[in-house]
Design brief:
Blueprint (H helix, E strand, L loop, with lengths): L4 H7 L7 E2 L5 E2 L4 E6 L3 H18 L2 E6 L2 H11 L7 E4 L1 H9 L20 H4 L6 E13 L10 H9 L7 E4 L6 H12 L8 H10 L3 E5 L2 H9 L5 E5 H10 L3 E4 L5 E10 L6 H10 L1 H11 L12 H4 L8 E2 L3 H18 L3
Parallel strand pairs: 3-4, 7-8, 11-12
Antiparallel strand pairs: 1-2, 5-11, 6-9, 6-10, 6-11
Helix pairs in contact: 2-11, 2-12, 6-8, 7-8, 7-14
């Protein structure tokens, strides 16, 4: 039996446990499964919750490798049908790209027993070929010393900004920010009856806000720096990052918009031709106990509805009726024209 390079590498540390059996078959104590992940505290949380749970329950081996979703996807595509990654983690655009390229397998409750405990949108919007395991929402990060009564909806945010109520202290994402459509164009257009394919009212409302925009931010780290320096007082922001900032600054606040908490999620997928054990690792990413550990470590929500959040986090989890899932496929189809229009009409 021939062993290709990929299999030899993945047997790695377990090589000493290999035993050749009669007929030329090969027995391995277990393959090391590999999944990509984001860096920093995210990698730590993935390892301590999902990876360690898989190891303790199955006795198998697995590792999380820091690799940007776009880079990991390129590697998977280039090395098929024997990818070095057994599972793939990506944001919304990466997830749809992996599905379009036919690089991932369809899942079922038989393979992933925790599926019935998840919000339906965790799988339905991904053609049942990916499952959301990490969830945050876009709301309004604000300085409560300057804005004691933050806007409760996207409509209110746009109207009050355009009226100059917050002064020139508002920040919006720039055209170079990858989330500008989901965190500005779509939610504002949707709030006033528009859509991705008919966003005119959204651009009109955003244009009216521009005189009071102090900065168009390119990445989320800029927002907290600008707010800490007193240059801005309010901005659309991610809940998972907002809670970290609030824990460090008692004057900061975060308002989740009613009926408009725009969902931002990360998904996990089983790469085609990866071993069956990969389903068990995928289940660890969404099962109640490891998901609860992850939520606590990351100060964020998870799609598993059975998770019991700690008291400190429970008050920060939005009501189900307020979570709004954006039309990701429509956004992807129209992203180029929307960014072009933003550059012409908004300019930030």
């Amino acid at each position: 039996m021939l062993i290709n390079k990929r299999e030899l590498l993945k047997l790695g540390a377990g090589a000493g446990a290999m035993t050749l059996l009669g007929g030329g078959s090969l027995f391995a104590a277990g393959k090391r499964l590999t999944v990509n992940t984001y860096g920093g505290v995210y990698e730590t949380a993935v390892t301590e919750s999902f990876i360690n749970t898989y190891k303790s329950l199955t006795g198998g081996d697995a590792q999380a490798v820091v690799d940007l979703p776009s880079a990991a996807l390129s590697k998977i595509s280039a090395t098929m049908p024997a990818s070095d990654y057994d599972l793939y983690v990506g944001l919304a655009n990466d997830t749809l790209r992996a599905i379009e390229l036919d690089l991932v397998e369809e899942l079922s409750a038989a393979d992933v027993p925790a599926l019935p405990d998840l919000m339906p949108e965790a799988t339905s919007q991904w053609d049942n070929k990916a499952v959301s395991f990490s969830l945050s929402v876009c709301g309004f990060l604000y300085d409560s010393r300057k804005i004691p009564n933050p806007p409760q909806t996207w409509e209110e945010f746009a109207v009050r900004t355009a009226a100059g109520e917050f002064g020139k202290s508002v920040s919006l994402p720039s055209a170079s920010n990858s989330g500008v459509i989901e965190t500005a164009i779509y939610p504002i257009a949707n709030a006033f009856g528009g859509s991705i394919t008919d966003p005119g009212i959204g651009f009109e409302k955003i244009a009216a806000m521009v005189p009071y925009v102090a900065h168009f931010y390119t990445d989320l780290s800029q927002v907290v720096n600008l707010m800490s320096n007193g240059e801005i007082a309010i901005a659309p922001y991610s809940s998972s990052r907002a809670w970290v900032y609030l824990n460090q600054n008692d004057w900061a606040g975060f308002q989740i918009p009613k009926k408009g908490a725009i969902a931002q999620s990360s998904q996990i997928m089983k790469v085609k031709n990866s071993p069956p054990e990969a389903w068990k690792l995928m289940n660890s990413f969404v099962d109640k106990e490891p998901a609860g550990i992850f939520a606590k470590m990351m100060n964020s929500m998870v799609p598993n509805t059975k998770v019991q959040y700690p008291e400190s986090l429970l008050a920060r989890v939005p009501a189900q009726e307020d979570i709004h899932y954006p039309p990701i496929r429509e956004i992807m189809k129209n992203s180029a024209s929307l960014i072009e229009r933003w550059n012409k009409e908004i300019g930030g």
